[in-house]
């Protein structure tokens, strides 16, 4: 599929995500309506040795005793065109998950252009390792591990979930980790990924378009391998974990066609992928739409819940 030329237009992207940041307080109020005692929060935990706030995460867990094997756990990844945003922008989703029985880990990650692709993918991997290493402390069930991300966070979620069954060469093309890094053998397996408004394919962008040069380090003519390596659709296979996409039909920033094409590729490969279309919703409003939260929860209820005996 071909991404439209206005995808993540630099003049538009910061405006959209500043709007999301400003409005997300209203969505936070929505999930807090159940009362502040309905969850536990552990803020600014350090999941990596990245300087400053980039290596921080927030943990939200349900109130009460954990299940015998721990809580199903979701890593939650913010958007912002890979160059802005923070865990605060998407914390309402994490609180919502914790209020409905899940542990949620909301992460910051290093931002472009100071840190171009694939730094952000490695940060998600590092967060997954941290979850595994801290499973006892927070009662994470690493056998029931999922991903949720919106926009750029959705892209990163699909990258990590789609790549986990790929060849070493494919993984190394989307990482700064060396081939002999012991972390490769320690990564937990993601069982499900729910994403909103995700860019899925950069392979057909015009060769000399510099819209995403801040992220890739140059145009597609200059950095063809990066644009290829950063396209989740290139890694679709029958062994991918279940995916559910939520996308506004009026999204002009990341057109819904990218999600339609990803779903078709998943179905053709024999993998499970659903798509919820939100009529008359653009990029920011789909993020704030309560249906997005409900669809996310329903998907994880289907894919991460322990089977009844």
Automatic annotation (TrEMBL):
One of its GO terms (molecular function) is carboxylesterase activity. Residues 58-265 form the BD-FAE-like domain. InterPro entries: AB_hydrolase_fold, BD-FAE-like_dom, GDXG_lipolytic_enzyme. SUPFAM superfamilies: alpha/beta-Hydrolases (SSF53474). The keyword Transcription regulation does not apply. It comes from the Bacteria. It is an enzyme of class 3 (hydrolase). The keyword Signal applies. Its EC number is 3.1.1.1. Residues 1-33 form the signal peptide. Keywords: Hydrolase, Signal. This is Carboxylesterase NlhH. The gene is nlhH_1.
């Amino acid at each position: 599929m071909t991404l439209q030329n206005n995808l993540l237009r630099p003049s538009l992207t910061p405006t959209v995500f500043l709007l999301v940041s400003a409005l997300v307080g209203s969505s936070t109020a929505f999930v807090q309506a159940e009362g502040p005692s309905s969850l536990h929060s552990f803020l600014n935990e350090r999941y990596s040795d990245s300087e400053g706030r980039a290596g921080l995460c927030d943990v939200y867990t349900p109130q009460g005793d954990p299940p015998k094997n721990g809580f199903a756990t979701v890593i939650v990844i913010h958007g912002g065109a890979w160059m802005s945003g923070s865990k605060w922008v998407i914390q309402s989703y994490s609180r919502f998950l914790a209020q409905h029985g899940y542990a949620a880990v909301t992460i910051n990650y290093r931002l472009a252009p100071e840190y171009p692709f694939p730094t952000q993918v490695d940060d998600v991997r590092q967060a997954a390792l941290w979850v595994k290493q801290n499973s006892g402390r927070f009662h994470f069930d690493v056998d029931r591990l999922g991903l949720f991300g919106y926009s750029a966070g959705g892209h990163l979620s699909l990258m990590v979930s789609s790549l986990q069954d790929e060849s070493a060469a494919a993984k190394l093309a989307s990482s700064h980790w060396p081939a002999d890094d012991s972390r490769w053998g320690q990564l937990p397996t993601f069982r499900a990924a729910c994403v909103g408004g995700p860019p899925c394919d950069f392979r057909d962008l015009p060769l000399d378009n510099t819209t995403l040069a801040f992220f890739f380090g140059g145009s597609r003519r200059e950095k063809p391998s990066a644009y290829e390596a950063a396209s989740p659709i290139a890694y679709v296979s029958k062994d991918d974990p279940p995916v559910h996409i939520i996308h506004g039909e009026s999204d002009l920033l990341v057109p819904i066609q990218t999600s339609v094409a990803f779903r078709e590729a998943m179905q053709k490969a024999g993998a499970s992928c659903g798509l919820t279309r939100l009529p008359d919703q653009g990029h920011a409003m789909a993020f704030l739409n309560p249906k997005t939260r409900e669809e996310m929860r329903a998907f994880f209820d289907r894919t991460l819940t322990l089977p009844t005996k």
